[in-house]
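Sequence, please.
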């Protein structure tokens, strides 16, 4: 028992040390880190806009990625209007750049006539970035000198760190005026303590409006192999992602925390090119059956479900894989040997009592 407390104690010690740093999320990472992940930015447009325009502004890889992050139907029209003031979750790739987690070389903004660096940060990208960071990553000598047509990398803040030992997707959330750390924690299913620690905030009252707050969203566990093309896929609670060339749709719900994947069946995709994977399972009667993705069947010791296990892409042919996972929680497993050990002293004392009775 005592041994188990050591890592916990050590972790809180590390947090205390981190707490001495200046306030604000640090987003620091060790340089040379090869890890990349998906992150989210909570973009709150000032004026009415469309999903298509948001995709272009942030160079989101596909409209489906934008729809999935916001749990919108795959048949949503790109010209669908988004009202000003409404937050939209924008997915983007995150990587470690020069010791800081940053959007991976995107989005790229092309300077228009009359643009200033400060307005690009506050008006165009709605405070998701500070102009000093734009100047730093683009090696601008003078923050007042940007040229029409110049291409600027907009370094959005992000992180690939797991939080509390759980799969996590980080959201760069813009604090609304009048909001509180407790209310934000409640809204995103995290705790006030987690937000304060992650963002190096000593006093919750010092929360500043229109500043980025790093909000960790819990993601689902998955059976995807780390060596698969989509080995780093993380889907946060209440959203979905398309993968394997849009053949597979994976959703995450907080009722199970296990990624649920199925054939996406999009009209836009050639589904005959999506070869559906199956799993074989042994039923309680000893029969071997074939399970479709997401399907489950009662098996010897519980229930077996066919989970998506990632895809491989060799000579442009998608090899979509699945793995059967047996859940043993339905029927209790046979008594483990440890309980037999526990019975021995009892049997011994019974035997002794009997012996005692016999001698009397
Ligand atoms: C929103 O509309 C106002 C008024 O037309 C304009 O001044 C402002 O620049 C617009 N904001 C953006 C981000 O385009
Ligand atoms: C990398 O970080 C170091 C230390 O923070 C800084 O001096 C340097 O200018 C940065 N380089 C780039 C290209 O941003
Ligand atoms: C999961 O998502 C739901 C709906 O978006 C939200 O109400 C809930 O707080 C979230 N829970 C966690 C633990 O993230
Ligand atoms: C998710 O994975 C973590 C770590 O691998 C494990 O501790 C946890 O029990 C898993 N949760 C579920 C619901 O499978
Ligand atoms: C996401 O969308 C699906 C399908 O429309 C729905 O069943 C689910 O409840 C939605 N989840 C959330 C968190 O809104
Ligand atoms: C599969 O590989 C080919 C060639 O390398 C590439 O063009 C294609 O985009 C890949 N498909 C997927 C879904 O990763
Ligand atoms: C795919 O969509 C078609 C048409 O909507 C439907 O008939 C079919 O059952 C769907 N297949 C799956 C696997 O959902
Ligand atoms: C769809 O995919 C199948 C199998 O890969 C291929 O034979 C067929 O030509 C494709 N159809 C279209 C319209 O691309
Ligand atoms: C698909 O990939 C898996 C994992 O690498 C491999 O075991 C399997 O043999 C592959 N199947 C095909 C048809 O290439
Ligand atoms: C185990 O399977 C049962 C029946 O399918 C299901 O109700 C339960 O949620 C499953 N538990 C886990 C941890 O997957």
């Amino acid at each position: 028992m005592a041994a188990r407390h050591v890592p916990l104690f050590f972790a809180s010690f590390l947090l205390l040390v981190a707490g001495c740093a200046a306030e604000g999320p640090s987003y620091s990472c060790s340089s040379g880190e090869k890890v990349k992940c998906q992150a989210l930015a909570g973009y709150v447009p000032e004026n009415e806009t469309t999903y298509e325009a948001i995709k272009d502004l942030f160079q989101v890889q596909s409209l489906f990625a934008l729809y999935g992050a916001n749990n919108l139907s795959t048949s949503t029209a790109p010209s669908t209007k988004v009202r000003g003031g409404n937050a939209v979750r924008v997915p983007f790739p995150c990587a470690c750049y020069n010791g800081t987690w940053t959007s991976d070389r995107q989005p790229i903004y092309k300077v228009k006539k009359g643009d200033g660096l400060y307005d690009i940060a506050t008006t165009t990208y709605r405070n998701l970035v500070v102009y000093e960071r734009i100047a730093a990553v683009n090696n601008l000598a003078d923050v007042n000198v940007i040229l029409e047509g110049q291409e600027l990398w907009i370094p959005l803040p992000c992180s690939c760190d797991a939080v509390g030992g759980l799969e996590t997707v980080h959201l760069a959330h813009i604090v609304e005026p009048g909001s509180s750390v407790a209310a934000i924690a409640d809204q995103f299913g995290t705790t006030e303590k987690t937000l304060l620690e992650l963002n190096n905030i000593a006093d919750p009252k010092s929360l500043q409006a229109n500043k980025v707050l790093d909000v960790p969203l819990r993601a689902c566990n998955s059976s995807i192999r780390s060596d698969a093309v989509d080995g780093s896929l993380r889907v946060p609670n209440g959203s979905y992602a398309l993968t394997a060339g849009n053949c597979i749709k994976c959703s995450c719900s907080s009722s199970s925390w296990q990624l649920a994947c199925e054939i996406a069946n999009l009209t836009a995709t050639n589904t005959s090119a999506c070869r559906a994977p199956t799993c074989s399972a042994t039923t309680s009667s000893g029969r071997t059956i074939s399970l479709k993705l997401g399907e489950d069947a009662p098996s010897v010791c519980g229930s077996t479900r066919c989970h998506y296990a990632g895809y491989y892409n060799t000579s442009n042919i998608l090899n979509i894989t699945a793995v059967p996972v047996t859940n043993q929680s339905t029927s209790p497993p046979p008594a483990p040997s440890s309980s037999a050990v526990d019975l021995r002293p009892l049997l011994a004392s019974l035997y002794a009592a009997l012996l005692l009775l016999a001698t009397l």
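The longest strand covers residues 302-314.
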